[in-house]
Amino acid sequence: MEAVVVDAGSKLLKAGFASPDQDPALIMPTKMKRVVEDGDGGDASMIEEVTVDPVVRGFIRDWDVMEDLLRHVLYTDLGWEVGDEGQILFAEPLFTPKAIREQLVQLMFETFNVSGFYASEQAVLSLYAVGRISGCTVDIGHGKIDIAPICEGAVQHIASKRFQIGGIDLTNLLVRELCKSNPLMNIDISEVEKLKEQHARCAEDQAAFEETLRACPKETHTLPDGQTITIGREGYIVGEALFQPSVLGLEEYGIVEQLVRSISSVSSENLRQLLENTMLCGGTASMSGFEERFQKEANLCSSSIRPSLIKPPEYMPENLSKNSAWMGGAILAKVVFPQNQHVTKGDYDETGPAIVHKKCF
User: Fold this and answer.
1) Domains in the chain: ranges and CATH
2) C-alpha 52: how far from its chain's center?
3) Which residue of 20, 29, 168, 343 has the smallest Cβ count within 10 Å?
């Protein structure tokens, strides 16, 4: 039985048996419904169903919900059988705390009885997906942006950066902007997510963005409940936030400047290799016009620090940038498990959860 690869993000969980040239078999919201009781249990108490997000800003925060979600994924969706569990590889975000790594390996061996475990950082796995072991990843996820220079398969943590900005913040920005032009709007956040996917885009450059603010045609959109709203420049404002975080009220450099500053802090002998192998990944990186704007701003940098983007192999699936960490995990699983580089049950029993820091790096 092939190893299972899991990439659990703040918005989507991707899982499937290790098949590097295919999209993950399962892509589902990282959510679980919970029934909660409000009151003292008497006649006045209310029972309601709530949705819980076990992963927040990339990190697991609710372990009980995560356990239930993984149980459903592994046994119901992927067909594991109790007593015959296989091996599993997790893609983990940048700067995952040691305590979370240890709790995950403990959950896998003590609750799920896996036969083997491995974990690797999403940034490294994304590079593996495009056949690289050195480069720099810019991962724009639902709850965060991670910028990670990688040399010979090792993340340069001292030069890496994480920002608490992600797709969810852009969605909230779109809500605020739409409310300005549609003051009577009453809309569910899930509908705003769909609007963002359809209408969010990046202007060609800052001058084009400013021109768009002055004169951008409005488009009428009818919501599922029959409400009619207009949307125009709001979509461009969402895209501009990645290059001008001041749009979000943040005093931060734009994403290209952040990348250049990150790479520039790496030793000079690795600089060229990192610059020439820059990879954009994460769901938000597929926003219309983003890659073109990113490369245009990068081209304005001095030639000594000018990033250039990796062209993905033609044989890889179209959704590579969205699923690159999972695909890289599938590639790595084909190596670490057959070559016994993973954490075995014997390793875990002998050393305990801390073994994850020795064998998964």
Assistant:
1) 4-127+318-359 (3.30.420.40), 131-165+252-305 (3.30.420.40), 167-247 (3.90.640.10)
2) 18
3) 29
pLDDT higher than threshold 70 for residue 46: no
3-state secondary structure of 193: helix
> Residue range 61-72: average pLDDT?
96
Residue 203 structure tokens = 């202007």
Residues 6+ apart with CB under 8 A from 164: 57, 143, 144
> Which run of H or of E encompasses 357?
helix 355-359
Model confidence, pTM: 0.92
- Tokens for 56? 């927040």
Question: How is residue 236 written in tokens?
Answer: 């461009």
Alpha-helical runs (H) found in 284-319:
290-299
> What are φ and ψ of residue 21, in 5° steps?
-95, 15
Distance (Å, whole) CA 160 – CA 94: 8
| Residue 44, pLDDT score | 47
Supply 209's token pair.
């963005």
Which pair of tokens denotes residue 352?
A: 């305990």
Nearest to 128 by CA among 89, 164, 96, 186: 89
Q: Report in angstroms the alpha-carbon separations of 126 from 39, 162, 335, 344.
A: 47, 16, 16, 25
